[in-house]
Amino acid sequence: MRKVLQKLALLGIIASLSAFTLGGYQKTTESKETQTEAKSEAKADETKQEEETESTDKAENTEEAKDTDKSEEKTDETEEKTEEKAEEEKTVELEKTEHPTFTSDGIRKLVLNRDGEEIFSLSKEPADYKMEFDYWEILNPYDETATVNTETMYKLFDVLSGFDFSTTAEVPDGTDTGVEGSTTTMQIDYTESTDTSAEADKTVTLLLGNEDDLGNRYVAVAGYENEVYTIPSSTLEAIYNLNPFDYILKIPALVNIDTVESIDIKTKESSYTMKIKDGKYYMGDKEVEKETFTTLYQALLNVMLDSNLDTPKADNEKEEVLRMVFHRSTKEAPEITLTYYTYDGNYDSVAVNGTERYLVKNADVNALVQQIAEAFK
């Protein structure tokens, strides 16, 4: 398994404030009557001046508020347009091909539907917070947290790239090929570019029909059903009967340490925190060497999956053994929570972000709990 490096970037926000002041009045040395009158007039003038000042301030504040509202509306409008533009750029219209030819390196997406039900979906989903080999995702029956085994994936793509749509099949008159309106389909998005970073620009949906007398199955390209091809039934059965578990790496999740800010760990006995700050590594409040930190970090993600979990136990039938929350340093990267529960005498179950999918050996979980306790001594 590939090793990962770590780094952390910090951002700051600066704010500024402003204020204003007001003034008073002066006394005179006149007779009592004159003083009283003068005071009354001064007070009246002062009141008038304050009213004028207050009126002016209100007007200025009203104008400032209007300008602020306009500015905020303009900012919101700009942000909305930017988001719309980004979404438009993200949605690319793929060219539908009549006679597709693709290589295993050019495939970017595979979706299998059987009798109208999607049973498997695999696609390349690049993101800045991922490592390149982790771009691939199985979104059905798993989600973006499952790490694809690219070696197994490319073996499947090698089979798909062997499909030949250059020569149509000879179909006897009166034969019902079954391709018209078929709901058993295979969608393949691909590119003919040799650039491995190129996105898909072409797509094809194959309609799977009935079998012929030679052990093949009739197939047509959606939109061009008048041209029918054949593919060996055994090949298609192997594809449609694939086990998704064979297509993932046997780890609960792959969390790039470059995108981690901290990890909260909770066992039955204690709670711990690992943190990366300003290029320094901390276990609890203690600064540690990078190697010490990464050794434990790799162990946290190295409990191997044994199998899929068919039926999770009820909450009152299981006990939490270990919980780890990976807090990310970038908003784009999702927070990952791994929770291990007791299952039976040999296995624990593991939930990824609240969804229990896999079984692991409880001996491996117990060993990790012990390793965590030792590391924090």
Word description of this protein:
- With 377 residues, the chain is an alpha+beta fold.
- Helix content is 27%, strand content 28%.
- The chain folds into two domains: 95-247, Immunoglobulin-like (Sandwich); 257-375, Dna Ligase, domain 1.
- The chain has a nine-stranded antiparallel β-sheet with strand order 12-11-10-9-14-15-16-17-13.
- The model is unreliable at 1-89 (pLDDT under 50).
- Let me know the number of strands: 17
Strand line-up across the major sheet: 12-11-10-9-14-15-16-17-13
Through-space gap between termini: 28 Å
CATH level-1 class of the largest domain: Mainly Beta
Rg estimate, integer Å: 34 Å
Which fold name is given in CATH as the topology of the largest domain?
Immunoglobulin-like
- Order of H and E elements: HEEEEHEEEEHEEEEHEEEEEH
Helix content: 25-40%
- Please indicate the percent range of residues in DSSP E strands (runs of 2 or more): 25-35%
Count every helix, treating DSSP H or I runs of 4 or more residues as helices.
Answer: 5
What would the average pLDDT be, to the nearest integer? 82
Number of domains: 2
What is the overall silhouette? elongated
Low-pLDDT runs: 1-89
Q: Major sheet, described briefly?
A: 9 strands, antiparallel
Structural class based on helices, strands and sheet pairing:
alpha+beta
What is the annotated CATH architecture of the largest domain?
Sandwich
Features:
single chain; 377 residues; Immunoglobulin-like; 2 domains; 9-stranded antiparallel β-sheet; 8-stranded mixed β-sheet; 5 helices; elongated; disordered N terminus
